[in-house]
Amino acid sequence: MGLFGRKNTESATTTATLPVDPALAALTGTYTIDAAHSSIGFTVRHAMVTNVRGSFAAHEGTLKLNGTDPAHSSASIDVEIASIDTGIADRDNHLRSADFFDAEQFPRMTFRSTEAAHLGGDTYRITGDLTIKDVTKPLSIDLEFNGSATDPYGNERVGFEGSAQILRSDWGLTWNAALETGGVMVSDKVKLNFDISAIKQAA
Question: Where are the alpha helices (DSSP H) in 44-181?
């Protein structure tokens, strides 16, 4: 399904006559991310030998899907930095501090989409602006569309999961500590993980 847009090499005349997939058109609408059933997290190498995983418990966002004209679909996400959770309170407090996110001065991380493309099958790439602290840089996220369903409460849902890789130093997150055996405490490379369930808003 071409939810976010599709690269098409056919002529404009041919494209204009293609029928709209009824199942795809039915998904058109505005969806609110269900934070209780979604996860926005990260994985980062620690001390050169293992991975630390964390997530942000508080986040909100909107997906605007256009099944008739998928290129006009979009996404926006806001994440509360103070809600970071790696399972270790001292580490979480350090991540909230000025050494890392400086949550008091910069309480939110945001993503605003600018374009999207269909990579084939149910795989998509959505590109936009990621803002952390006072730095905004482009980010592309590869997503898999997991499908749509009506839940037992009558909510129409869509699901996506995906990931992206960034260098945290690009967003000014540069704190580190050298290890006696060589290397550093925290890798620059960070994997972002997204598992999204969104509910369609009433028309």
Answer: 89-96
Report CA torsion sign: 98, 99, 101, 103.
negative
Q: Is the dihedral of CA 178, 179, 182, 183 positive or negative?
A: negative
Phi-psi region of 168 (alpha: psi -120 to 50; beta: other; left: phi over 0): alpha
DSSP state of 91: H
Residues 6+ positions from 49 with CB-CB distance below 8 Å: none
Give the 3-state secondary structure of residue 22: helix
- Please give the model's pTM, rounded to 2 decimal places: 0.87
The CA distance from 162 to 107, in Å, is: 24
What is the tens place of the pLDDT at every residue in 129-182? 999 999 999 999 999 989 999 999 999 999 999 999 999 999 999 999 999 888
CB 141: neighbour CB atoms within 10 A? Answer: 22
- Give me the count of residues in the chain: 203
Torsions phi, psi for 17 (to 5 deg): -95, -5
Which two structure tokens, joined as six digits, stand for 9?
């090499």
Q: What angle do CA 152, 202, 160 make, to 5 degrees?
A: 65
Pairing verdict, β 108-120 and 84-85:
unpaired
